[in-house]
Prior knowledge:
With about 350 residues, the protein is of the alpha/beta class. It has 14 helices and eight strands. It has helices spanning about 5-15, 20-30, 40-50, 55-70, 75-85, 95-105, 110-120, 125-140, 145-160, 170-180, 185-190, 205-210, 240, 250-265; strands at about 195-200, 215-225, 230-235, 285-290, 300, 315-320, 335-340, 345-350. The protein has a six-stranded mixed sheet with strand order 4-2-3-1-7-8. Helix 8 (about 125-140) runs antiparallel to helix 9. The longest helix is centred in the N-terminal third of the chain and has 18 residues, at about 55-70. The two termini are about 30 Å apart.
Amino acid sequence: GNLDMALEHYRQAIDLDEHYLEAMLNAAELLIHPLGSLAEAIRVLDQALESCQTADDIADASVLKVDALLQQGDRAAAAELLLGLPEGPYENEQLDFLIGRAHFELDQIDAATVLIERAAARSDASPDVLYYLGLLRDRQERNGEASLAFLKTRHLDGLLPSPPWSPSHGRFEKIVQAALRALPEELTQRLEGNLIMVSDLPGLEVVAEGVDPRTPLLLDEMATTAGGEEQRRLFVYQRNIERLIRHPLGLQEDVQEILHRELEAHFNRPRDDRTVRHDCAPFSAVCVIAEQRGARAGRMHANLVGSTRHWHQPKEGCARAAGSHSISSQCGSLTAAFACNTKLGIARID
Length: 350
């Protein structure tokens, strides 16, 4: 969990051998995510590209640099770099997916389709590959195939081990409580008296209804009372929030930042725009079960890329659909529920 120490070790290795490619790639991964030091990452990757000998090495370093450039907002440079990649096939089959993912982030759907479909056809396809297959099918409006890919993603995500620094369910519940207490007053007022539930992952049933399997939060907008009070339920998904953690040693601060950012983005959105539509722009990683419960709406994600070679950050998104049934009965592995108030007492649900 000590990322700064790990990065320092990589820097020392590079100082001892300026052509130590693996150390440069690993350092760049840490710099892109979770540290977010994009300029330094690009500098390290430029050094790495000078040391690359094989097509696989060039592609590996280039894909990381594409990720960094996209996070910097330099889509033109990312597209130019991607265009200059050596042609496959590559010895490392994972490169098909990583390059396909980069094409997808650049809205180059035809090129992305060939590579992502090839990666997904392998028997050992990872959850990340299937997740992008779902995003691809959703972009192509092949909704049935998208749902199947997302359901497979959710199933496989549930089989993955937790990070070594992952807190127990009970500890995570306390972290969420503390994070909610620390929110600005305008947000705590919006959540006052609403039910908040902590779970590992979204249930298969809500994923089948269109909820992104990697959303960190699910906000169930229920109704507005005669007195004008909004009623909602907030589901907090531990495993998906852990994907967004930048500094495991500062877990409390990171969880607080995630909840603050995502809830603020949602509540600052005009009320009429909170009902999810095919043409709505993604506004945060919060999935929303819209008040118009019968409407089918597109699953969204923002063009922000994950930045490692071995796992992928969840995309920002919103719910594709909502049925007329109770969401609370569908969220598997539910660990706790509590009303959001000044005491934030937990009523455990077994």
